[in-house]
Design a protein that fits this description.
Blueprint (H helix, E strand, L loop, with lengths): L7 H7 L10 H4 L1 H14 L2 E5 L8 E7 L2 E7 L5 E5 L14 E3 L3 E2 L6 E2 L5 E3 L16 E7 L2 E5 L8 H12 L7 E11 L3 H8 L5 H4 L21 H23 L7 E3 L7 E6 L30 E6 L3 E5 L4 E10 L2 E11 L10 H27 L14 H18 L2
Antiparallel strand pairs: 1-10, 2-3, 2-5, 3-4, 4-9, 6-7, 7-8, 9-10, 11-17, 12-13, 13-14, 14-15, 15-16, 16-17
The protein binds FE2/S2 (inorganic) cluster and fe (ii) ion (FE2).
Fe (ii) ion binds next to α8.
Length: about 425
Protein backbone atom coordinates (compact mmCIF):
# COMPACT_ATOMS: atom_id res chain seq x y z
CA UNK A 1 0.00 0.00 0.00
CA UNK A 2 1.09 3.56 -0.62
CA UNK A 3 -0.06 5.28 2.54
CA UNK A 4 3.26 6.26 4.10
CA UNK A 5 3.38 10.05 4.00
CA UNK A 6 6.34 11.94 2.62
CA UNK A 7 8.01 9.21 0.64
CA UNK A 8 9.98 10.26 -2.46
CA UNK A 9 6.81 9.32 -4.37
CA UNK A 10 4.74 11.84 -2.39
CA UNK A 11 7.39 14.51 -2.91
CA UNK A 12 7.36 13.88 -6.65
CA UNK A 13 3.64 14.60 -6.86
CA UNK A 14 3.72 17.47 -4.39
CA UNK A 15 6.55 19.21 -6.27
CA UNK A 16 5.04 19.00 -9.74
CA UNK A 17 5.38 22.37 -11.47
CA UNK A 18 2.12 23.41 -13.19
CA UNK A 19 2.45 24.38 -16.85
CA UNK A 20 5.48 22.13 -17.35
CA UNK A 21 5.96 18.56 -18.51
CA UNK A 22 6.37 16.04 -15.71
CA UNK A 23 9.63 15.04 -14.06
CA UNK A 24 11.50 12.08 -15.57
CA UNK A 25 10.53 9.49 -12.90
CA UNK A 26 6.87 9.88 -13.93
CA UNK A 27 7.84 8.29 -17.25
CA UNK A 28 10.55 5.78 -16.31
CA UNK A 29 10.24 4.77 -12.66
CA UNK A 30 8.85 1.28 -11.89
CA UNK A 31 7.59 2.66 -8.55
CA UNK A 32 5.53 5.39 -10.23
CA UNK A 33 4.28 2.86 -12.77
CA UNK A 34 3.13 0.54 -9.97
CA UNK A 35 1.32 3.45 -8.33
CA UNK A 36 -0.25 4.44 -11.69
CA UNK A 37 -1.59 0.93 -12.13
CA UNK A 38 -2.91 0.74 -8.58
CA UNK A 39 -4.45 4.19 -8.41
CA UNK A 40 -5.23 5.36 -11.95
CA UNK A 41 -5.96 2.06 -13.70
CA UNK A 42 -7.14 0.29 -10.54
CA UNK A 43 -9.63 2.88 -9.29
CA UNK A 44 -10.94 4.84 -12.28
CA UNK A 45 -13.18 4.09 -15.25
CA UNK A 46 -11.04 2.58 -18.00
CA UNK A 47 -12.19 2.49 -21.61
CA UNK A 48 -11.74 -1.03 -23.02
CA UNK A 49 -13.86 -1.47 -26.15
CA UNK A 50 -17.33 -1.31 -27.64
CA UNK A 51 -20.49 -3.36 -27.41
CA UNK A 52 -19.98 -4.59 -31.01
CA UNK A 53 -16.85 -6.38 -29.70
CA UNK A 54 -19.33 -8.88 -28.24
CA UNK A 55 -22.39 -8.62 -30.49
CA UNK A 56 -24.07 -11.97 -29.77
CA UNK A 57 -24.78 -14.05 -26.64
CA UNK A 58 -21.66 -16.02 -25.73
CA UNK A 59 -19.30 -13.60 -27.48
CA UNK A 60 -16.41 -12.84 -25.14
CA UNK A 61 -13.46 -10.47 -25.20
CA UNK A 62 -10.40 -10.58 -22.94
CA UNK A 63 -8.71 -7.31 -21.97
CA UNK A 64 -5.57 -7.16 -19.84
CA UNK A 65 -5.16 -4.13 -17.58
CA UNK A 66 -1.80 -4.42 -15.83
CA UNK A 67 -1.77 -7.73 -13.94
CA UNK A 68 -5.56 -8.08 -14.22
CA UNK A 69 -7.16 -10.04 -17.02
CA UNK A 70 -10.82 -9.25 -17.59
CA UNK A 71 -13.46 -11.20 -19.52
CA UNK A 72 -16.25 -9.16 -21.08
CA UNK A 73 -19.09 -11.37 -22.22
CA UNK A 74 -22.59 -10.94 -23.61
CA UNK A 75 -25.21 -13.02 -21.84
CA UNK A 76 -28.30 -14.79 -23.17
CA UNK A 77 -30.31 -11.82 -21.89
CA UNK A 78 -28.14 -9.59 -24.18
CA UNK A 79 -26.61 -7.91 -21.12
CA UNK A 80 -22.84 -7.31 -21.22
CA UNK A 81 -20.92 -8.25 -18.05
CA UNK A 82 -17.30 -8.25 -16.96
CA UNK A 83 -15.46 -10.73 -14.74
CA UNK A 84 -11.95 -11.40 -13.59
CA UNK A 85 -10.49 -14.04 -15.91
CA UNK A 86 -9.34 -16.11 -12.94
CA UNK A 87 -10.80 -19.49 -12.06
CA UNK A 88 -12.24 -19.69 -8.54
CA UNK A 89 -10.77 -23.19 -8.13
CA UNK A 90 -6.99 -22.80 -8.26
CA UNK A 91 -6.80 -19.53 -10.09
CA UNK A 92 -6.00 -20.58 -13.64
CA UNK A 93 -6.60 -18.07 -16.41
CA UNK A 94 -9.77 -19.28 -18.12
CA UNK A 95 -10.08 -17.59 -21.52
CA UNK A 96 -6.91 -17.08 -23.52
CA UNK A 97 -7.85 -15.60 -26.89
CA UNK A 98 -8.69 -11.90 -27.18
CA UNK A 99 -11.99 -12.82 -28.86
CA UNK A 100 -13.93 -16.05 -28.59
CA UNK A 101 -17.48 -17.40 -28.47
CA UNK A 102 -18.55 -19.73 -25.68
CA UNK A 103 -21.65 -21.55 -24.49
CA UNK A 104 -20.43 -21.43 -20.92
CA UNK A 105 -17.10 -20.25 -19.54
CA UNK A 106 -15.12 -23.43 -18.91
CA UNK A 107 -11.75 -23.62 -17.17
CA UNK A 108 -9.47 -26.01 -19.05
CA UNK A 109 -7.68 -27.19 -15.88
CA UNK A 110 -10.38 -29.15 -13.99
CA UNK A 111 -13.43 -28.15 -16.04
CA UNK A 112 -15.12 -25.89 -13.55
CA UNK A 113 -17.90 -24.34 -15.59
CA UNK A 114 -19.42 -20.89 -15.21
CA UNK A 115 -22.49 -19.59 -17.04
CA UNK A 116 -22.54 -16.24 -18.84
CA UNK A 117 -23.61 -14.47 -15.64
CA UNK A 118 -20.44 -15.76 -13.93
CA UNK A 119 -22.25 -18.29 -11.72
CA UNK A 120 -20.42 -21.58 -11.12
CA UNK A 121 -22.77 -24.22 -12.52
CA UNK A 122 -20.53 -27.28 -12.61
CA UNK A 123 -17.62 -28.53 -10.47
CA UNK A 124 -17.01 -32.30 -10.15
CA UNK A 125 -15.75 -34.17 -7.10
CA UNK A 126 -16.00 -31.26 -4.63
CA UNK A 127 -17.88 -33.19 -1.95
CA UNK A 128 -21.22 -32.55 -0.29
CA UNK A 129 -20.16 -29.48 1.73
CA UNK A 130 -19.11 -27.49 -1.34
CA UNK A 131 -21.23 -24.43 -2.06
CA UNK A 132 -21.12 -23.53 -5.75
CA UNK A 133 -22.87 -20.23 -5.09
CA UNK A 134 -19.80 -18.96 -3.18
CA UNK A 135 -17.47 -19.64 -6.11
CA UNK A 136 -18.79 -17.61 -9.02
CA UNK A 137 -16.40 -15.53 -11.13
CA UNK A 138 -15.47 -12.29 -9.44
CA UNK A 139 -17.44 -9.50 -11.12
CA UNK A 140 -15.86 -6.31 -12.43
CA UNK A 141 -17.85 -3.08 -12.69
CA UNK A 142 -18.81 -2.41 -16.30
CA UNK A 143 -20.78 0.43 -17.85
CA UNK A 144 -21.81 1.06 -21.42
CA UNK A 145 -21.94 4.67 -22.52
CA UNK A 146 -24.09 4.44 -25.67
CA UNK A 147 -22.08 1.36 -26.63
CA UNK A 148 -18.63 2.45 -25.39
CA UNK A 149 -17.51 0.00 -22.67
CA UNK A 150 -15.78 1.16 -19.51
CA UNK A 151 -14.66 -1.05 -16.64
CA UNK A 152 -13.55 -0.17 -13.11
CA UNK A 153 -11.46 -2.60 -11.07
CA UNK A 154 -12.15 -0.89 -7.73
CA UNK A 155 -14.70 -2.26 -5.27
CA UNK A 156 -16.33 1.15 -5.26
CA UNK A 157 -15.95 2.91 -8.60
CA UNK A 158 -16.15 6.70 -8.96
CA UNK A 159 -19.81 7.65 -8.78
CA UNK A 160 -19.67 10.43 -11.35
CA UNK A 161 -19.80 8.08 -14.36
CA UNK A 162 -23.52 8.84 -14.66
CA UNK A 163 -22.84 12.55 -14.95
CA UNK A 164 -20.41 11.92 -17.79
CA UNK A 165 -22.89 9.60 -19.46
CA UNK A 166 -25.67 12.19 -19.15
CA UNK A 167 -23.53 14.85 -20.76
CA UNK A 168 -21.71 12.86 -23.47
CA UNK A 169 -24.52 10.40 -24.20
CA UNK A 170 -26.63 12.75 -26.36
CA UNK A 171 -23.55 13.64 -28.47
CA UNK A 172 -22.69 10.01 -29.20
CA UNK A 173 -26.18 8.48 -29.45
CA UNK A 174 -26.98 9.65 -33.02
CA UNK A 175 -23.91 7.74 -34.29
CA UNK A 176 -25.44 4.54 -32.85
CA UNK A 177 -22.34 2.61 -31.78
CA UNK A 178 -24.47 -0.42 -30.88
CA UNK A 179 -25.53 -0.74 -34.51
CA UNK A 180 -21.97 -0.87 -35.85
CA UNK A 181 -19.41 -3.60 -36.43
CA UNK A 182 -15.67 -3.54 -36.07
CA UNK A 183 -14.32 -3.28 -39.60
CA UNK A 184 -10.71 -3.31 -38.45
CA UNK A 185 -8.63 -3.33 -35.28
CA UNK A 186 -4.98 -2.45 -34.88
CA UNK A 187 -2.85 -3.07 -31.81
CA UNK A 188 0.47 -1.31 -31.71
CA UNK A 189 3.00 -1.28 -28.90
CA UNK A 190 4.42 2.18 -28.41
CA UNK A 191 7.89 2.43 -26.89
CA UNK A 192 6.89 4.93 -24.24
CA UNK A 193 5.14 5.43 -20.92
CA UNK A 194 1.34 5.54 -21.17
CA UNK A 195 1.33 9.21 -20.11
CA UNK A 196 3.47 10.14 -23.12
CA UNK A 197 0.90 8.41 -25.35
CA UNK A 198 -1.93 10.38 -23.73
CA UNK A 199 -0.07 13.69 -23.71
CA UNK A 200 0.77 13.31 -27.38
CA UNK A 201 -2.90 12.77 -28.15
CA UNK A 202 -3.95 15.86 -26.23
CA UNK A 203 -2.31 18.39 -28.53
CA UNK A 204 -2.02 19.11 -32.21
CA UNK A 205 0.97 21.44 -31.83
CA UNK A 206 2.92 18.65 -33.50
CA UNK A 207 0.33 17.94 -36.22
CA UNK A 208 1.38 20.27 -39.02
CA UNK A 209 4.97 18.99 -38.94
CA UNK A 210 4.20 15.29 -38.51
CA UNK A 211 0.77 14.28 -39.78
CA UNK A 212 0.32 14.94 -43.52
CA UNK A 213 -2.69 12.55 -43.68
CA UNK A 214 -4.43 13.60 -40.46
CA UNK A 215 -4.27 17.30 -41.21
CA UNK A 216 -5.95 17.16 -44.66
CA UNK A 217 -9.50 17.63 -43.30
CA UNK A 218 -8.48 19.66 -40.25
CA UNK A 219 -8.60 23.45 -40.10
CA UNK A 220 -5.21 24.73 -38.98
CA UNK A 221 -6.87 27.30 -36.70
CA UNK A 222 -8.47 24.45 -34.79
CA UNK A 223 -5.00 23.47 -33.47
CA UNK A 224 -4.73 26.66 -31.38
CA UNK A 225 -2.50 29.65 -32.06
CA UNK A 226 -0.81 32.64 -30.46
CA UNK A 227 -2.70 35.76 -31.65
CA UNK A 228 0.29 38.01 -30.96
CA UNK A 229 2.37 36.07 -33.50
CA UNK A 230 -0.14 36.56 -36.33
CA UNK A 231 -0.29 39.17 -39.07
CA UNK A 232 -3.55 40.84 -40.03
CA UNK A 233 -4.51 38.29 -42.69
CA UNK A 234 -3.92 35.38 -40.32
CA UNK A 235 -5.91 37.07 -37.60
CA UNK A 236 -8.82 37.62 -40.03
CA UNK A 237 -8.65 33.94 -41.03
CA UNK A 238 -8.68 32.87 -37.40
CA UNK A 239 -11.71 35.06 -36.75
CA UNK A 240 -13.46 33.57 -39.78
CA UNK A 241 -12.76 30.09 -38.39
CA UNK A 242 -14.23 31.05 -34.99
CA UNK A 243 -17.39 32.40 -36.68
CA UNK A 244 -17.68 29.32 -38.88
CA UNK A 245 -17.35 27.08 -35.81
CA UNK A 246 -20.13 29.00 -34.06
CA UNK A 247 -22.40 28.81 -37.12
CA UNK A 248 -21.73 25.11 -37.59
CA UNK A 249 -22.47 24.32 -33.96
CA UNK A 250 -25.77 26.22 -34.22
CA UNK A 251 -26.64 24.45 -37.49
CA UNK A 252 -25.86 20.95 -36.17
CA UNK A 253 -27.62 21.55 -32.88
CA UNK A 254 -30.73 22.75 -34.75
CA UNK A 255 -30.57 19.37 -36.55
CA UNK A 256 -30.53 17.52 -33.22
CA UNK A 257 -26.77 16.94 -33.02
CA UNK A 258 -25.25 18.34 -29.81
CA UNK A 259 -21.94 19.88 -30.86
CA UNK A 260 -20.71 22.59 -28.50
CA UNK A 261 -17.66 21.94 -26.36
CA UNK A 262 -18.07 20.47 -22.88
CA UNK A 263 -14.77 20.25 -21.01
CA UNK A 264 -14.37 18.53 -17.65
CA UNK A 265 -10.91 17.12 -18.29
CA UNK A 266 -9.44 18.18 -14.97
CA UNK A 267 -12.32 19.09 -12.66
CA UNK A 268 -14.01 15.69 -12.37
CA UNK A 269 -12.88 12.32 -11.09
CA UNK A 270 -14.18 10.87 -14.34
CA UNK A 271 -12.72 13.55 -16.60
CA UNK A 272 -13.88 14.05 -20.18
CA UNK A 273 -14.24 16.50 -23.05
CA UNK A 274 -16.47 16.46 -26.11
CA UNK A 275 -16.86 18.73 -29.14
CA UNK A 276 -17.93 18.46 -32.75
CA UNK A 277 -15.59 20.21 -35.18
CA UNK A 278 -16.06 21.02 -38.86
CA UNK A 279 -14.01 19.15 -41.45
CA UNK A 280 -12.42 20.90 -44.42
CA UNK A 281 -12.72 20.05 -48.12
CA UNK A 282 -15.83 18.01 -48.84
CA UNK A 283 -16.31 17.86 -45.10
CA UNK A 284 -17.73 14.34 -45.08
CA UNK A 285 -15.20 12.35 -43.13
CA UNK A 286 -11.72 12.15 -41.71
CA UNK A 287 -10.16 10.63 -44.81
CA UNK A 288 -7.36 11.74 -47.11
CA UNK A 289 -9.86 13.05 -49.68
CA UNK A 290 -12.35 14.31 -47.01
CA UNK A 291 -15.12 12.18 -48.56
CA UNK A 292 -16.98 9.42 -46.72
CA UNK A 293 -15.04 6.12 -46.54
CA UNK A 294 -18.20 4.07 -46.06
CA UNK A 295 -21.22 4.46 -48.35
CA UNK A 296 -23.63 3.21 -45.70
CA UNK A 297 -23.89 5.97 -43.11
CA UNK A 298 -24.21 5.49 -39.37
CA UNK A 299 -27.43 5.80 -37.36
CA UNK A 300 -30.20 7.52 -39.28
CA UNK A 301 -27.87 9.91 -41.05
CA UNK A 302 -28.72 10.77 -44.63
CA UNK A 303 -25.94 13.32 -45.05
CA UNK A 304 -22.31 12.65 -44.12
CA UNK A 305 -21.38 16.31 -43.66
CA UNK A 306 -21.56 16.26 -39.88
CA UNK A 307 -17.96 17.21 -39.12
CA UNK A 308 -16.08 15.11 -36.62
CA UNK A 309 -17.34 14.59 -33.08
CA UNK A 310 -14.35 14.08 -30.81
CA UNK A 311 -14.57 12.73 -27.31
CA UNK A 312 -11.70 12.36 -24.84
CA UNK A 313 -11.86 10.55 -21.49
CA UNK A 314 -9.33 10.41 -18.67
CA UNK A 315 -7.20 8.44 -18.24
CA UNK A 316 -7.05 6.36 -21.40
CA UNK A 317 -9.23 7.09 -24.41
CA UNK A 318 -10.18 9.26 -27.33
CA UNK A 319 -12.77 8.75 -30.06
CA UNK A 320 -13.73 10.34 -33.37
CA UNK A 321 -17.31 9.96 -34.63
CA UNK A 322 -18.06 10.87 -38.21
CA UNK A 323 -21.21 10.41 -40.28
CA UNK A 324 -19.83 7.29 -41.98
CA UNK A 325 -17.44 5.70 -39.47
CA UNK A 326 -16.03 5.86 -35.95
CA UNK A 327 -12.42 5.50 -34.82
CA UNK A 328 -11.93 4.67 -31.16
CA UNK A 329 -8.69 4.37 -29.16
CA UNK A 330 -7.86 2.60 -25.89
CA UNK A 331 -4.49 3.08 -24.17
CA UNK A 332 -3.34 0.19 -21.98
CA UNK A 333 -0.01 0.39 -20.13
CA UNK A 334 2.25 -2.68 -20.44
CA UNK A 335 5.24 -1.61 -18.35
CA UNK A 336 6.84 1.73 -17.41
CA UNK A 337 8.21 2.21 -20.91
CA UNK A 338 5.76 0.37 -23.21
CA UNK A 339 2.10 0.96 -23.96
CA UNK A 340 -0.51 -0.83 -26.05
CA UNK A 341 -2.56 1.45 -28.29
CA UNK A 342 -5.68 -0.39 -29.48
CA UNK A 343 -7.56 1.30 -32.34
CA UNK A 344 -10.90 0.14 -33.74
CA UNK A 345 -12.64 1.37 -36.90
CA UNK A 346 -16.42 0.95 -36.76
CA UNK A 347 -18.87 1.08 -39.65
CA UNK A 348 -22.62 0.40 -39.91
CA UNK A 349 -23.14 -3.28 -39.13
CA UNK A 350 -24.81 -3.88 -42.51
CA UNK A 351 -22.03 -2.22 -44.51
CA UNK A 352 -20.25 -4.69 -46.76
CA UNK A 353 -16.52 -4.71 -47.22
CA UNK A 354 -15.53 -4.25 -50.85
CA UNK A 355 -18.94 -2.79 -51.69
CA UNK A 356 -19.61 -0.06 -49.13
CA UNK A 357 -16.09 0.39 -47.81
CA UNK A 358 -12.50 -0.52 -48.43
CA UNK A 359 -10.36 -1.30 -45.36
CA UNK A 360 -7.29 0.48 -46.65
CA UNK A 361 -9.14 3.69 -47.46
CA UNK A 362 -11.11 3.52 -44.20
CA UNK A 363 -8.04 3.10 -42.04
CA UNK A 364 -5.24 4.89 -43.88
CA UNK A 365 -5.39 8.22 -41.98
CA UNK A 366 -5.15 6.76 -38.49
CA UNK A 367 -2.88 3.85 -39.45
CA UNK A 368 -0.38 6.43 -40.67
CA UNK A 369 -1.05 8.84 -37.79
CA UNK A 370 -0.64 6.15 -35.12
CA UNK A 371 2.76 5.17 -36.50
CA UNK A 372 3.87 8.80 -36.69
CA UNK A 373 2.69 9.38 -33.11
CA UNK A 374 4.35 6.17 -31.95
CA UNK A 375 7.70 7.43 -33.25
CA UNK A 376 7.24 10.75 -31.43
CA UNK A 377 6.31 8.97 -28.19
CA UNK A 378 9.49 6.88 -28.55
CA UNK A 379 11.53 10.07 -28.93
CA UNK A 380 10.07 11.42 -25.68
CA UNK A 381 10.75 8.18 -23.83
CA UNK A 382 14.38 8.20 -24.99
CA UNK A 383 14.65 11.83 -23.89
CA UNK A 384 13.18 11.12 -20.46
CA UNK A 385 15.86 8.48 -19.86
CA UNK A 386 18.63 11.01 -20.37
CA UNK A 387 20.17 12.75 -17.33
CA UNK A 388 19.77 15.98 -19.33
CA UNK A 389 15.96 15.78 -19.31
CA UNK A 390 14.20 18.55 -17.42
CA UNK A 391 10.48 19.46 -17.53
CA UNK A 392 9.78 21.98 -20.30
CA UNK A 393 6.99 24.57 -20.61
CA UNK A 394 3.67 23.87 -22.32
CA UNK A 395 2.38 26.30 -24.93
CA UNK A 396 -0.54 28.21 -23.38
CA UNK A 397 -2.21 28.31 -26.82
CA UNK A 398 -1.82 24.73 -28.07
CA UNK A 399 -1.07 22.45 -25.12
CA UNK A 400 -3.87 23.33 -22.72
CA UNK A 401 -5.29 19.83 -22.87
CA UNK A 402 -1.90 18.27 -22.11
CA UNK A 403 -1.77 20.47 -19.03
CA UNK A 404 -5.29 19.33 -18.13
CA UNK A 405 -4.29 15.69 -18.54
CA UNK A 406 -1.31 16.21 -16.22
CA UNK A 407 -3.44 18.20 -13.73
CA UNK A 408 -6.01 15.43 -13.67
CA UNK A 409 -3.37 12.72 -13.29
CA UNK A 410 -1.39 14.48 -10.55
CA UNK A 411 -4.52 15.47 -8.62
CA UNK A 412 -6.00 11.97 -8.78
CA UNK A 413 -2.70 10.48 -7.59
CA UNK A 414 -2.28 13.03 -4.80
CA UNK A 415 -5.84 12.52 -3.68
CA UNK A 416 -5.22 8.80 -3.17
CA UNK A 417 -1.68 9.09 -1.83
CA UNK A 418 -2.68 11.63 0.79
CA UNK A 419 -5.67 9.67 2.02
S1 LIG B 1 -8.09 -24.10 -11.78
FE1 LIG B 1 -9.89 -23.89 -12.95
S2 LIG B 1 -10.90 -25.75 -12.69
FE2 LIG B 1 -9.12 -25.98 -11.51
FE1 LIG C 1 -0.21 13.08 -33.32
Amino acid sequence: MLHVPDTPLHALFRNRKPGYSLDAPFYVSPEVFAADMEIIFGRHWIYVGVEPDVPEPGDAMVVDVGPSSIVIVRGDDMGVRAFHNVCRHRGARILHDEKTTVGNIVCRYHSWTYDLTGALIHADHMGPGFDRSCHGLKPVHLRSLEGLLFICLADEPPTDFDEMAREIGPYIAPHNVRNTKIAYQSDIIEEGNWKFVMENNRECYHCSGNHPELTVPLFAYGFGFAPEEMDETERANAERYTCMLKDKHAEWEADGLPSREIDHLDDRITGFRVERLPLDGDGESHTVDTKAACRKLLGDFTNAKLGGLSCWTQPNSWHHFMGDHIVTFSVLPLDPERTLLRTKWLVHKDAQEGIDYDIERLTEVWQATNLQDSTLVGYCQTGARSPAYAPGPYSPHTEMLVEKFCNWYVNRMKDHLER
